[in-house]
User: What shape does this take?
Amino acid sequence: MKSKKVTRRSFLTTVSAGAVAASSANILPKISPFMTHTNDSGKLAALGGTPVAKNLSWPAWPYVDEKMVDKLVETAKSRIWCRIDNPRNGTVATFEREYAKLMGCKGVVATGSGTQALNTTVEALGIGPGDEVITSPYTDMGTIASILVSRALPVMADIDPESFQIDPDDVERKITPRTKAIMPIHIMGQPCNMERIMAIAKKHDLHVIEDACQAHLSVYKGQMLGTIGDAGCFSFQSSKTIACGEGGAVISNDEKLLDKCYTVQNHGTNREGRSVTIGSKYRMNELEGALLLGQLDGVVERFETRNRNAKYLTSKLEGFKGLRPQKLYDGTESGSWYLYTMSYHKEHFNGAPREKFLKAMAAEGISLSPYIGNGLHREPWTEHILTLDVYKKMYAAERLKKFKKELYLPNCDKVCDELMVMLWAGGPLLAGQKEMDLFLEAVMKVYDNRDQLKNI
Ligand SMILES: Cc1ncc(COP(=O)(O)O)c(C=O)c1O
Assistant: This one.
């Protein structure tokens, strides 16, 4: 391959311009002249060429700094490890207040995980056996588990293959007289089409429980995700952009609902110490609270850095039909960028299946993942619940038959099987422009040498 010397500035400008030109002409750009890093850039690293990003090391995740460590040590030494030992000013209670300020909502109830936050909300809204909750199969099992542990029926709606978000039209099709709530998932930390979902919920008098487990600080039409429905649920599991190992939170502007959530996650015991309802023990502990509190200071800056880098990558990939960044709905103002995701279109890579592209990228030094291997409608829980007495008693045989039939979700299957490629972005999108450019160079090198993919 010929290598024309260009400066980094011209590389970046030209990649973008070339991509846009390609989109209008429907011919993909030849970008290889900008491969200034290698002297054999015409050979994919997977076939013995020199990797574009040989020693690339992304910023590590989860985030740790001295302040977090100090807070953790201070809490350990205090011997107050359980939130009820300092209910007003312990680390968990303080984090709840600080998170509420950050999210601009009336209150927060911390829990031991995102799954627990979701199940707490399901229980607090009185959803149980015989009820149905519509959600997406393109998610973590925690979403589905939060409905199943209350013995309600998780009803699957298909997704939009470009945004990977729940499809509001399919949600509406799946509503029955038993439907009590919609649980949209802001997948990858980007907003669902909340305008449509809220309109559907209003029309059919349904609750909306936002699964915002991936979507810390994301804003849609001026509102923080998690504050649009009845409640929003967050995860602070290690990979998330605010993390403490395992942790979660329910946020809401409905104080009565928040009180119920507190009681449910406190094994049914309210703030006054009376045991009034059914609930498991889902309390966050003080060490988790300390880790969360210790990192709040820099959270907004890290969020802004991720947004800046994501915007940069997306602008450079604009018009490139081989790899298309996640579609964002109108009104998306920012995202957590927990993951940076794209859809891979093999017809623009000489028909090479996604696996070959991923192998080629990994060899160039950029590890991408196909993310969720199976939509959750293809997992054995869908068969298992049909064998359980509680489901057989609470749902008519016809209903369960229909539930099974409705597990044909071709868009989700296509995203799982062919399209999705993603970068775990919590750490990587905190890197500098140099790393973003290496990412783009690797993509373009593989694209430019796509005829070699068949040999990998
Ligand atoms: C979309 C989504 N929902 C729910 C969960 C469950 O959260 P947790 O793992 O904290 O229980 C996760 C976690 O990965 C998630 O990504």
Observations:
- Residues 1-39 have pLDDT under 50 and may be disordered.
- The two ends are 19 Å apart (CA to CA).
